[in-house]
Amino acid sequence: MSSRMNPYSVAPKAMQAMIDLAERLREDALEPSLMELVKIRVSQINGCAFCLHMHTSDARKQGEAEERIHLLPAWRESGMFTPRERAALAWTEALTLITQGHAPDEVYAEVAAHFEPVEIVRLTLEITTINAWNRIAIGFRSVHPHERALAR
After folding, report:
1. What span, in angstroms and rounded, lies between the C-alpha atoms of 74 and 68?
2. Is pTM beyond 0.85 here?
3. Which of 59, 114, 117, 145 has the highest local Cβ count within 10 Å?
């Protein structure tokens, strides 16, 4: 697969705004391990190879277990995720798949039981932002590093 364009060179100021948002969210982030799980799950749902490569690598660097990364698509059936992580993952799926239920009240109630209001806002912004990054990477067919190396 080849890239359609490099949005960073075509519209550097607009892309810098996205980078600035991501950096600001990182400063106020919830648990880094949880944020990587959220980013991986969104990227799995959206099918974003570039973001999956990045966030699974980042999760591993932070010490995330391979088993949990592999079981993430089936988190509901696995006992390897905490109640807080499960609530965040349910909220992640509800917002990423917004047309399939429009963030149901029961999912919101569960996230509200495990997160403070400010944390829910931060989590929601993380989910929203990784969805945007997925759309940028998929839309412009960003190529992840190992694929570039193998293509040579």
Report:
1. 10
2. yes
3. 59
pLDDT digits (tens, 9 = 90+) for 69-94: 999 999 999 999 999 999 999 999 99
For residue 34, what are its two tokens? 């949880």
Query: Rounded CA gap, 16 and 18, in Å?
Result: 5
The 10 Å Cβ neighbour count of residue 112 is 14
Q: Which sign does the torsion angle of CA 116, 110, 82, 70 carry?
A: negative
Give CA–CA dist 4/79, Å, rounded.
Answer: 41
Q: Are 55 and 40 in contact (CB under 8 A)?
A: yes
Positive/negative CA dihedral, 43, 32, 84, 74: positive
Is the CB of residue 137 less than 8 Å from the CB of residue 3? no
Residue 144 has pLDDT above 70, yes or no: yes
Sequence-ordered list of residues with C-beta below 8 angstroms from that of 94, at least 6 positions apart, any chain: 101, 103, 104, 107, 108
